[in-house]
TrEMBL record:
InterPro entries: Aldolase_TIM, CofH/MnqC-like_C, Cyclic_DHFL_synthase_mqnC, F420, FO_synthase_su2, rSAM, rSAM_sf. GO terms for biological process: menaquinone biosynthetic process. S-adenosyl-L-methionine binds at residues 78, 184. This is Cyclic dehypoxanthine futalosine synthase. Pathway: Quinol/quinone metabolism; menaquinone biosynthesis. Pfam families: CofH_C, Radical_SAM. One of its GO terms (molecular function) is 4 iron, 4 sulfur cluster binding. It catalyses: dehypoxanthine futalosine + S-adenosyl-L-methionine = cyclic dehypoxanthinylfutalosinate + 5'-deoxyadenosine + L-methionine + H(+). It is an enzyme of class 1 (oxidoreductase). The keyword Protein biosynthesis does not apply.
Length: 361
C-alpha cells in the first residue's frame, strides 16, 4: 500500500496550525523567515499573541540597568562597553555609588534593578553577596534582576563553587531573577566567532536549568544580524523552546539586532527594521510556550517598536533610567514613562505598568 507524501509546507498549512493553537516545526519557522509577505507573518504572530496574552494591553516596567563594572577579560567582539583588566578606563562602582543609584531609581518610581557588568576577575561571590544584601536590606521592595549566565558561571569558577551552590547563595542574598543576556545565538559555531572565550551553549542552558530548579526565573534573548545564518536563528529558538518545555525558566523573550559601531566584529551594516519585525514575528509563532515578548526600543527606536506590537510583541520592556552597554555603541533611544505610554496608545494599545514578575501595578 502506497504511503501518502508529506504535505508541502505553505503559508496556508502553517496558518492552519497557528490558528488551531498547534506547534510549528523548525522547517516551518525557516519557511516563515523566507516568506515574502510580512503582513502574513504579522497576522499569524498576532494570533499567537492573542492565544498567550489576550487583549490590547501592552506592559512595561520602570527600572535601571546598573552596570556596576565594565572590567571584563572575555573580549566579546560584539561589545563596545568592556575594558580589559588594568585598563585606565575600567571602573568598579563603590557600594555607596550603587546604593545611591538604587535610591534614585526608587525616587523615580522604579521597581527593578538590572544589575549587570563584565567578568571582573577581582570579584568573587562574597562581593555579590555583600552588595545584594545591602540593596535588599535598604530597598526590600526593589527586584534584583541580576547577572547574566556568563557572569554567574564565572563567579562559580573563580569562587570554586558549583553552579547550584553559587545560585543558592546569590538567591539568599537577594537575587530574584536572571536576565537572558549572553544568549546571543545558542549555536557554538557562531559563539566561537563572536565570543570565543565565553560560555558554550550547553553551559548557558545549564545555568538557566539550575536556576529554574532553585525557583529563580529568567528571560531569554537573541542577538541577531551578525555572522549567523537563518538556520542558526531557528536552531537558537529551538533550544529556547526545548528548555522552556523542560523546566519553564523563561518569563519573556527579547530579540535585538547587533549594533556594530565601535566593536571588533567586522559587520558592515545593521539588520534592517523589516528583519527585526520578521524576527519578532517568527519567534512569537515558534515559541508557543513563552507568554511575553518584549520589543527592543533601545536598538529599534519608538516607531519600529510600536510596529512590533502588531508582530506579536506585548511588552515594551523597561523605561531605562540608565543604560550604558548598548549606548556605548552609539544608540540612544531612551524614553521616559510618559513617552512609552504615548507611543503605546498611538499604536492602538492600552499601556499598563508592571513589575519583573509581570504583575500589573
Amino acid at each position: 500500500m502506497a504511503t501518502l507524501a508529506p504535505e508541502r509546507i505553505s503559508i496556508d498549512t502553517i496558518a492552519d496550525k497557528v490558528y488551531a493553537g498547534q506547534r510549528i516545526t523548525a522547517e516551518e519557522a525557516l519557511f516563515l523567515y523566507r516568506h515574502p509577505n510580512p503582513l502574513d507573518l504579522a497576522a499569524l504572530a498576532d494570533a499567537r499573541r492573542q492565544q498567550k496574552v489576550p487583549g490590547r494591553t501592552v506592559t512595561y516596567v520602570i527600572g535601571r540597568i546598573l552596570n556596576y563594572t565594565n572590567v571584563c577579560w572575555v573580549r566579546c567582539k560584539f561589545c563596545a562597553f568592556y575594558r580589559v583588566p588594568n585598563s585606565p578606563e575600567g571602573y568598579l562602582l563603590s557600594d555607596e555609588e550603587i546604593l545611591s543609584k538604587v535610591q534614585d531609581t526608587v525616587d523615580k518610581g522604579g521597581v527593578e534593578i538590572l544589575f549587570q557588568g563584565g567578568l571582573n576577575p577581582k570579584l568573587k561571590i562574597e562581593y555579590y553577596e555583600g552588595i545584594f544584601s545591602s540593596i535588599k536590606a535598604r530597598f526590600p521592595n526593589v527586584i534584583l534582576h541580576a547577572l547574566s549566565p556568563a557572569e554567574i558561571i564565572y563567579i562559580a569558577h573563580i569562587s570554586r563553587l558549583s553552579l547550584h551552590d553559587t545560585l543558592s547563595r546569590l538567591k539568599a542574598s537577594g537575587l530574584h531573577s536572571i536576565p537572558g543576556a549572553g544568549g546571543e545565538i545558542l549555536v557554538d559555531r557562531v559563539r566561537k566567532i563572536i565570543a570565543p572565550y565565553k560560555d558554550t551553549t550547553d553551559e548557558w542552558l545549564a545555568c538557566m536549568r539550575t536556576a529554574a530548579a532553585l525557583g529563580i526565573r529568567s528571560t531569554a534573548s537573541m542577538m541577531f544580524g551578525h555572522v549567523e545564518t537563518l538556520e542558526d536563528r531557528v536552531e537558537h529558538l529551538g533550544r529556547i523552546r526545548d528548555l522552556q518545555d523542560e523546566c519553564n525558566p523563561f518569563r519573556a523573550f527579547i530579540s535585538w539586532n547587533f549594533q556594530p559601531e565601535d566593536t571588533a566584529l567586522p559587520v558592515s551594516h545593521k539588520a534592517s527594521g523589516l528583519d527585526y519585525l520578521r524576527t519578532v514575528a517568527v519567534s512569537r509563532i515558534f515559541l508557543d510556550n513563552v507568554d511575553n515578548f518584549q520589543v527592543s526600543i533601545l536598538t529599534q527606536g519608538p516607531k519600529i517598536a510600536q510596529t512590533a506590537l502588531g508582530y506579536g510583541a506585548n511588552d515594551f520592556g523597561s523605561v531605562m533610567i540608565e543604560e550604558n552597554v548598548v549606548s556605548a555603541a552609539g544608540n540612544k533611544f531612551i524614553l521616559d514613562a510618559a513617552s512609552f505610554e504615548r507611543v503605546i496608545e498611538e499604536g492602538g494599545y492600552e499601556p499598563r505598568r508592571r513589575n519583573t514578575r509581570y504583575e500589573l501595578i
